[in-house]
Amino acid sequence: MAKSPNRFVCQNCGTLAPRWQGRCDTCGEWNTIVEEQPEVRAPGPAGKSGGGRKLEFVGLKGRAAPPPRTVSGMAELDRVLGGGFVPGSVVLVGGDPGIGKSTILLQAAARIAAAGRRVLYVSGEEAIDQVRLRALRLGLAESPLGLAASTSLRDIAASLEEERDATLVIVDSIQTVWLDSLDSAPGTVSQVRACAAELTRLAKTRNFAVVLVGHVTKEGTLAGPRVLEHMVDATLYFEGDRGHQFRILRAVKNRFGATDEIGVFEMTDKGLMEVANPSALFLAERRGNISGSAVFAGMEGTRPVLVEIQALLSPSASGGSPRRQVVGWDSGRLAMLMAVLESRCRVSLGQNDVYLNIAGGLRINEPAADLAVAAALVSAATDRPTDPDRVFFGEVGLSGEVRQVAQTDLRLREAAKLGFAGATLPRRVARGGRTPGKGPEGLRLDEVGHLADLVAPIAAAAAGQAGAARAGAEAPPEGPEEE
Asked: What is the pTM of this model?
């Protein structure tokens, strides 16, 4: 019996398997291996097949100026893209279901279309009437953008080939588009790869920007083959917690801009509203004089962002391994920081359940948050609040030293603008003419070189408070004087 020419491909990682099996040996996922028809390739090497032409090599410096970007009208989106959509580029936008991917793209498309540009929106998941209902709710029903509903790549490609003046094309989503020449279901590795390659070719040849909406897996990564992220020019993730109204648009790849920028939006009944000053919004509900709280002056790309870090310690009820629950920060870095506090600063944390939360739903990735997290942990351990008018930032090493971080001046200016009076930061070796202890607009600076310099004042204040409480309890009650 002849062997079947089909192949078995894992839909999670793209690994080829010799036969069907329930579990992929590479990524460990279950029920992800699907039988697919192999792609038909021309026989012989491409260089010997004939029909090629000689390439013309040119210099790096071109004669013509680069094409202008297409501004979306949403400053937060343009910030993440690097200034707007680049003609001929392909942007991949991923995020959890219901997070707001289609909403923000519909809003951006409507604003670009209102500026007189030709914008096309191809929906593969919703019918035209469903998209119209969303546009009516967002107040965009009168927008002059072109709307179509299709999942056939041949129909989409044929329609785009006829477009001569299109500026932006949105395909929602790439997992629903399929090519009938491939004997596999939509969303499989071969279908996603082939459809994305064809749409990328159209974007480059027709010189319009293409936005692809992508699904994510349960781990939060984009579904489909990893090569999809390599094919596109920019990859954006739309993040957020359903319990918060904030949404974060983060760039993880951008050939035409920075890869560490974020855009902050607020989800309302009228769609996504831009947040020009996210620091004030993240700190709006902060309460002062509460132990276990510290304000971190962080950086997201070129933007300084101030957020509250909350820590809570409670005696472990299980008696075995204490819990370590972290939201918005790296749990491995928390374990390292707790080990440094116990070994270098003699702060006992090991027998307590530790809960750490970044208020507002923001996720922090930079190591400059170490000092603020340490301040929150020590404050919770000693039940002594930190100064509510002070911000913290600095990286902590394994020996307890506090290392310098980048863009210190931007962090300090943001703290001064929001009314903070002091800042605890790493000791600056070269001051560059700065006045010792003085920051922008009179901001009081406390520079620390070791983590013990941060712990000592908080522990001393807590010890003094405890001593005063004991003295008040041991003092005899006041009574009437005896004659």
From this structure: 0.74
